[in-house]
Amino acid sequence: METLIVLFGAFTLTLLIIWITSKRLELRFSGRVAMALMLVFTAISHFVFTKGMTMMIPFLPWPNVIVIFTGVIELIAAIGILLPTTKVLTGKLLILFYILLFPANIYAAIHNINLRTADYTGDGASYLWVRIPMQLLFISWVYFSTIKNQKSK
């Protein structure tokens, strides 16, 4: 839920700042700023809660490396989504990234993994029911703020 607070809070604040300073409504730019801030927030989680996140992917080799690497990918995507020349490509790759992360979220829900305490006391199926719409929201958010009606170069 913290990710949604960061996403919607940053979006609202960015919209407000732009509106106050320029009297323009910059939905796509505000969406990209909000997604970038959320990506930084989630990347930090990869470094702080590495042990819990590795529990989500025991079926992959080198789970610690993968968790750290995906955190780095999120930091790079946070930059790429803000740059005019890379936002479309970053958006496409970020959508693929979110799709590839989905099996780990399903595994975490099925096995009741609590990422913060790195144990099996999580919310289980309720986590999955929240995570599915969140993943779809993130994918849609990236699509509408980076790809839709944009000309790729």
TrEMBL record:
Q: What keywords sit in the KW lines? A: Membrane, Transmembrane, Transmembrane helix
Q: Does the keyword Ubl conjugation apply?
A: no
Sequence intervals crossing the membrane:
6-22, 29-49, 61-83, 95-113, 125-144
Domain of life here?
Bacteria
Keyword Ribosomal protein assigned = no
**Official protein name in the record:** DoxX family membrane protein
Q: Which organism is it from?
A: Flavobacterium gyeonganense
